[in-house]
Amino acid sequence: MTSVASSSSFYRDELFRALQEQGDAISSYHMTESSASSASAEVQLLEKHTATIIISIGGYQSLTDGHISTTYETLDALLGSISKLYGEKKREVLLAKLGALAGSDRA
């Protein structure tokens, strides 16, 4: 019996799902490689440069300009550390949602 963590699609599926959730906070992405122990994707950041995002049992890392980042527990934390515009866009979206909620409370 194969465990979930050793399935060749586990990391690919997890990275794909995490990237889909980013919405407008990244420009684009495409999956590049996957194996039983990791998966990677090329992500175009809002700053218009590309980072390779890697997920493995240790967490998320980025490869940018030949440098591997610290390992992060979440994709949000990693993207926030490599993209100033990522954090700004996430805050903008959150404030818009909070504003919409505040407006609906008044109705």
Explain what you see.
By secondary structure, this protein is α+β, with helices and mostly antiparallel strands. The protein has one domain (4-106): copper amine oxidase-like fold (2-Layer Sandwich). Helices cover 39% and strands 27% of the residues. The chain contains 3 helices and 5 strands. It has a 5-stranded antiparallel sheet, covered by helices on one side. A hairpin with a 2-residue loop joins β3 (50-56) and β4 (59-64). α2 crosses α3. The longest helix has 23 residues, at 84-106. Residues 1-6 have low confidence and may be disordered.
Layout of SSEs?
Elements: H1 10-20, E1 28-34, E2 38-44, E3 50-56, E4 59-64, E5 67-68, H2 75-82, H3 84-106
Antiparallel strand pairs: 1-2, 2-3, 3-4, 4-5
Helix pairs in contact: 2-3
Domain GSKIP: 25-100
Organism: Dacryopinax primogenitus (strain DJM 731)
InterPro entries: GSKIP_dom, GSKIP_dom_sf
| Side-by-side strand order of the widest sheet | 1-2-3-4-5
Q: Give the SSE order as H and E letters.
A: HEEEEEHH
Give the overall silhouette: globular
Estimate the helix proportion, in percent: 25-40%
How many strands, which pairing sense, and closed or not: the largest β-sheet?
5 strands, antiparallel
Protein name: GSKIP domain-containing protein
Domain GSKIP: 25-100
Organism: Dacryopinax primogenitus (strain DJM 731)
Pfam family, one: GSKIP_dom
Give me some keywords for this one.
single chain; 107 residues; alpha+beta; copper amine oxidase-like fold; five-stranded antiparallel β-sheet; 5 strands; 39% helix; disordered N terminus
